[in-house]
Amino acid sequence: MLLDGASLRLADLRDPSGLKPGLAPAARNAMEQSVSALQQMVADDRICYGVNTGFGAFANRRIDTKSIGQLQYNLVRSHACGVGEPLRADTVRRAMLLKANSLAAACSGARPLLVEVLLELIDKDVTPIIPSRGSVAASGDLAPLAHLALALIGEGEAMQAGKRLEGPAVMAAIGREPVRLGPKEGLAMINGTQVTTALTYEGLLRAERLLKASIAIGALSVDALAGSFTPFDERIHTVSRLDGQQRVAAEFRRWLDHSEINSSHVDCDRVQDPYSLRCMPQVAGAAWDTLRHAASVLERQVNGVTDNPLIFGTEALSGGNFHAEPLGFLCDFMAIAVAEIGSVSERRTDLLERRLNPNLNMFLTSEPGLESGYMIAHVTATALASENKTLAHPASVDSMPTSAGQEDHVSMATWAGLKLERICSNVASILAIELIASAHAIDKQRPLKTTARLEQLHAWLRRDVAFDPGDHRHDLEIARVTDALERGELDTLFPAGGTCDVILG
Predict the structure, then answer these.
(1) DSSP state of 62
(2) Domain boundary pick from 131, 160, 192
(3) Which terminus of the chain is more solvent-facing, meaning fewer CB atoms within 10 Å of its CB: N or C?
């Protein structure tokens, strides 16, 4: 594929290292024209923010012509203030692809060389080390992207095949000398929301996997609990007029068709199931709508230019595209949706232990009292669901002024993306606990079988987690299933391009 600043798709971000992207010829020409326009501004001694002025609160300080080159290096070095654990390699690669695509839009006054170097680093698996903390996501992801820029100028760090590279060795790994920055190239590299955009995309990707997993696992719990299939009737959801709800209900109907367990209690006296069973399409459908909204905004954001100032023809215009409020809102909105997926899952695990199904003992024990069964596995799910309620508090409603008040309203979107990561990890474990418990409940009702599709889900679990009717430690099996859900292994049980897919190719 060829980058032109306008044609990147969400699906392209799934595996940047497998894309082998290049720079489109038209984009190369446009970038060179942008550089020429910027050089003419410098020659004419026209004021251009960040080229011949200071930054932030120093915007009104003019920089003399002989110091313009030094200004860009000072910027990158002074802004490399990140702390905390490094971002995951996938996050960094996505941010690099997004940065290359943004530069290819030819509004940043950057040479094609920068795009080429970023793409070569991705291709040769050289991943700059970027600390995860330090961005308020306005003016863009300054600290994280400064660490990326350091790698390009021979002063940063990177990993390649498990080996740590430092200084000039980073660029040597792709057969290049360190980049010598042009008049605006330090600013072009660090001003932008590419790290936050990558985090937002990853939150969406993980949330989509968890939503689909919650439908399959929730369906298994319905049958394990002798629940009714009636709440998933198409007529109920058609009159809701809600797209997500109808899509999710349709997916539930694919999981809940003919079941021996369901047939065995057809004449039971239970009139209605608890909400965590009966209202799953409403809750998961709302989550689908939330994720689809996030995807629709991100589909545009991945081709957005978030630098400042922007070069249009012979003009350099100062604006605020670097303000990541749109991304902060998306991450906060998705955090609420994913937290609710986990919250209702925790409630279903509680139901599995309460003898809602008269054929099951309390806590799914074989010998109540002597055994504790899944009593404390549920407690773990409760702890994680409670933690998510705190983490789901929106980051984007906070703002702390920086740069002596010049940058007086910031988005905190990067923190919103990092919080979303934590929520997704918690929900994967909550769903793993529900799946293990519901599969156990299914085994307790043998020889009766559940639906054909749910039998596939049950068999998928039993490949790694054997049925053990007595008390045993649960942590290792929870960890194995959590990891499998995080990797999207359960996606193999869903048809490609299904009704519940959110990230479209």
Answers:
(1) B
(2) 192
(3) C
Among 192, 216, 249, the domain-final residue is 192
DSSP assignment of 433-469 equals: HHHHHHHHHHHTTTTS---HHHHHHHHHHHTTS----
Residue pair 405/128 in contact (Cβ under 8 Å)? The answer is no
Identity of residue 77: R
What range defines the domain where residue 323 resides? 199-307+319-358+377-399+409-466+476-493
Q: CA torsion 130→133→136→142, rounded to 10°? A: -20
| 67 HSE (CA, 13 A, CB side) | 11
Of residues 49, 201, 275, 374, which has the active-site annotation? 49
Active site residue 49: yes
Q: Are residues 115 and 203 in the same domain?
A: no
Write out the chain's pLDDT in tens, 505 residues: 899 999 999 999 998 888 889 999 999 999 999 999 999 999 998 999 989 999 888 988 999 989 999 999 999 999 999 999 999 999 999 999 999 999 999 999 999 999 999 999 999 999 999 999 999 999 899 999 999 999 999 999 999 999 999 999 999 999 999 999 999 999 999 999 999 999 999 999 999 999 999 999 999 999 999 999 999 999 999 999 999 999 999 999 999 999 999 999 887 877 799 999 999 999 999 999 999 999 999 999 999 999 999 999 999 999 999 999 999 999 999 999 999 999 999 999 999 988 788 889 999 999 999 999 999 999 999 999 999 999 999 999 998 888 888 888 999 999 999 999 999 999 999 999 999 999 999 999 999 999 999 999 999 999 999 999 999 999 999 999 999 999 999 988 988 778 889 986 5
User: Are residues 217 and 179 located together in one domain of the fold?
Assistant: no
SS3 call for 72: helix
User: What are the angstrom distances between the C-alpha of 25 and each of 2, 30, 321, 460, 461?
Assistant: 9, 9, 26, 48, 49
Give yes or no: residues 52 and 114 share one domain: yes
Residues 301 and 426 reside in one and the same domain: yes
Length of the chain: 505
Angle value at C-alpha 504, between 498 and 505, nearest 5 degrees: 110
Which residues have a Cβ under 8 Å from the Cβ of 175 and sit 6 or more positions away?
none
- Torsion, Cα of 40, 42, 48, 54 (10° steps): 160
CB 64 within 8 A of CB 205: no
Question: Is 413 a domain residue?
Answer: yes
